[in-house]
Amino acid sequence: MATHFSPAAIKFLRDLGKHNDREWFEPRKPIYETELKAPMLALIGEITNQMLDFAPDFVRPPQKCMMRIYRDVRFSKNKQPYKTNIAAWWARHGLEKTSGGGFYFQITATEVMVAAGCYMPEKEQLLAIRRMLLERHEEYRAIVSAKKFKAMLEPFDGNKMTRGPKGFPAEHPALDLIMQRQWGVSSELPVDLALSPDLLKEVVKRFKLAAPLVALLNGPLVERPKQPLF
User: Fold this and answer.
1) Could you say which DSSP state residue 67 is in?
2) How far is CA 130 from its chain centroid?
3) Closest CA to 186 of 152, 158, 145, 214
4) pTM of the prediction?
């Protein structure tokens, strides 16, 4: 049976949202380790094994994919020490230390979210993706508009600029995509899915659908040509 979570795991996340401090967390850390961390690592391994068939460049050890529950509060006004989700990020080989396109999965107390794409590209990556879209915007649109794709995944709003970036043609048919700062898709699913053996199947199904889009976005980033900025 595929790995899934217990009601105790969801209760822990719900309670953590109400008591986000070390005094509450530390005596309950064994619950986190048993009910959340251990099954999450097992699930990541199962997802990764299936990604060998459609995204082999993203195969990494589960410990490298799972995100820490501890927040980095050094530069944040929010000093709560813990994230209220449990999450994993699959980065492409060669882009682990950047913000290239990848696959993301998280569970909160209220939902399961599956996402894929390029969420926080660096300045040079933004330029590379935008230049790629000048030539391949029709391919991008064909992927995200496919009937089966649209039934399971929604495009990011893109965190759009108010006007086109400097140096790009204002009348280009890809301008709406070029104005974005993010490219990708996501799916928000009921939290009850986290308690079901179907969790693995539903995550993998969406990752597989999104794989061509992630590959398209990563294409110019993997090549990493030296390009002058506008």
Assistant:
1) P
2) 20
3) 152
4) 0.93
